[in-house]
Amino acid sequence: MADPELPVPDGLVLRPFRGVRFAVADLAAVTSPPYDLIGETGVRDLLTAHPNNVVRLILPGADRHRYAEARQTLHAWLSSSVLVTDEVPGVYVYEQSGPGTLQRGLIGEVGLASPERGTILPHEDVMPGPVADRLALMRTTEANLEPIFLLYEGGGGAATRLVDQVAAARTPLVETVTGDGLRHRLWAVTDPAELAAVDADLRPRRALIADGHHRYATYRALQAEHRATGHEAAGHHTAASPDSAAGPWDFGLALLVDSDAYPPDLQAIHRVIPGLPLGEALARAKGAWQAHEYADLAEGLAALREIAGPAFLLAAGGPAHLITDPDPDQVAHAMPTGRSARWRALNTSILAEFLLPKVWGMRDDEHSVRIVHHDPEAAVRLAHDFGGTAVLMNPLAVDDVLAVAAQGERVPRKSTSFGPKPRTGLLMRLLTPGRSC
């Protein structure tokens, strides 16, 4: 049940805010991927790219003072006008485009709601470590430094029509091309009539969290913290329910995309198991799976893509081994009770509940298993370097993810990677009274 002391949005609410943006000549050089896609090498590269790269805020140093360091850096950049705050609150049209890619959506303050409300649906579980880290960062900086990514079935409604009209006819506020070849453009929508049309279109809808489960959980934890301590910031007084007024902590920064107009690109998240040699992994798997050897990674990946059922490609350099057709009785025995047939058939469910714990004797957690987004070659290199095994898989189907989330279930952690993800550093949101409004 939702906490009765927390305001409950009456639908999907995306509210205008005063965006915080970099005022530097080379905008691409101060942006970054989302925090959880940046490895140690990536941090070094971003720090080298520009002295004001946003990575100094989202991934500050490793010592115990790192969150205070991020706050000091944020305040210094605001004071020196490296960062500027827009004068008029708006909802921002955001476009990403490139070869084979076009995605448009709206960035604003999304009203926070518990999953039980059915307005904002999570589809993955979260781990306590990342939530604690993001909570400490948000609490200390009093800012949302990067948006979460939400999808909704908009049917090309009024909000989407406005997004397309703005992108086609208006001069962007921001335009840059990042190193991955994507062009990013941003417009501020401040006209009251246009904002009202967006609000009316969105309120009856619901959204799926595509990316940012840990940050959304952090938004809600921070909201509960401020409500519980009585430190909720006054300033915004839009009624979220008949009996309560909503403040900045009752919202979080989000990109909202109409998946009917702009279908997402859903990619796999691969696993690397350090210390489990490929030969041992394969030998154990043969007790429950059919194994097929391929001369190299490319041949193995091509074969993996042709498999509709549960299948994984095991590799560490050299020949790759495709495991398919798991023993149905062993799989059924491993699956937890109370789960739907659709959930039980997901390849990530079979990985998390059967292959890893029953076949290899480990859990799919942040201590035993490393993850690699999208890139099978990078996963294989990592496995080779650590004397382990890369476990490569096909992406889940979008329809399966939506169906599982709609019935209140969540897929195992790190099951999906929706894209393209919003670029961090293009737009931020301050929560502190007097600066955010």
From TrEMBL:
It comes from the Bacteria. InterPro entries: UCP033563. It holds the Pfam family DUF1015. This is Uncharacterized protein (DUF1015 family). It comes from Planomonospora venezuelensis. The lineage of its organism: Bacteria, Bacillati, Actinomycetota, Actinomycetes, Streptosporangiales.
